[in-house]
Write a structure and sequence with these properties.
- The chain has 9 helices and 10 strands.
- It has about 280 residues and is α/β, with parallel strands linked by helices.
- The chain has a single domain, classed as Alpha-Beta Barrel (TIM Barrel), CATH 3.20.20.150.
- Helix 3 runs parallel beside helix 4 and helix 5 runs parallel beside helix 7.
């Protein structure tokens, strides 16, 4: 099981601390979603003129840069120009760091008809296909916003190549927002799932649409079932912890949450291996 975390969970950490703590806690890689307050990391010196040193630092620590998590929003017409600029910049970073994935959102419809969102997405993905294919990069669409249910994500993927466009299964969102069973998600999207995000939560009893994030295993997201579905389906990609501390500053510090994630996931892996030996 390959473990990484997004830098969304450590918004105050600098690059050196990210590398040091990732190694110390037992992670295998890091997914960049901002650095020290700057979300567009391609604007920062360590990823521009200093990228060779940054790459060497990660290589020396035995850490991969697993994904660049962009703000690309496929269904947004207003953001079309910005989407393309981000895509080009992140493709450059993927080339510099040997990274395979760029995360994208479907985005919020905000009252628009779903067909309009699909049309905007289709236009961008069609334009992006030659760039992605030439660079060997895959754009992975997260189960998020108004594109969380498996059938809606499948609609976004229609007409795209599995070589260039895949799915980032945030295992929390379909289950929490729609009660979507893991088997249903996998049956609809499994052939395109290239990457996963993990986090736990509990619903708030006084507000059925709200929830509170918890440490792994302290909520009710069915991680064992999700892991079993992934394993049975042959998934061998990343298991990435998305601790959303940048958006929720009251969450526990990464010094607590990150090592707890590693312990939980390694325990989950060990339990699965033990079950296999017993059968």
């Amino acid at each position: 099981m390959k473990l990484s975390f997004t830098t969304l969970g450590c918004p105050q950490w600098g690059l050196e601390r990210i590398v040091t703590k990732a190694s110390e806690y037992g992670f295998d890689g890091v997914d960049f979603r901002g650095l020290e307050g700057e979300m567009d990391i391609f604007e920062l010196q360590p990823f521009k003129t200093g990228y060779v040193e940054t790459r060497s630092r990660f290589e020396a620590a035995g850490l991969a840069l697993t994904c660049f998590s962009s703000s690309i929003t496929l269904a947004s017409v207003e953001r079309a120009g910005r989407n393309w600029e981000e895509l080009e910049r992140y493709v450059e970073l993927c080339d510099r760091f040997g990274t395979r994935y760029i995360r994208a959102f479907g985005g919020k419809l905000e009252g628009r008809d779903r067909s309009a969102g699909l049309a905007a997405s289709s236009g961008l993905l069609e334009r992006a296909e030659p760039l992605l294919r030439q660079s060997g990069v895959k754009l992975i669409v997260e189960t998020h916003d108004d594109w969380t249910r498996c059938e809606d994500v499948a609609a976004l993927l229609e007409g795209t190549s599995p070589d260039t466009v895949g799915v980032l299964w945030d295992v929390h969102h379909p289950y929490r927002m729609f009660g979507e069973p893991p088997e249903r998600t996998w049956n609809a999207l499994g052939s395109r799932i290239a990457y996963t995000h993990w986090k736990d939560s509990l619903p708030q009893p006084d507000s059925p649409d709200a929830f509170t994030y918890r440490f792994m295993g302290e909520g009710d997201v069915p991680f064992q079932a999700i892991r079993s579905v992934l394993t049975a389906g042959g998934y061998d990609g990343w298991y990435t912890f998305e601790w959303e501390k940048r958006w929720h500053p009251d969450l526990a510090e990464p010094e607590l949450a990150f090592p707890q994630f590693v312990r939980y996931m390694r325990g989950l892996e060990a339990e699965e291996n033990e079950r296999k030996r017993a059968t």
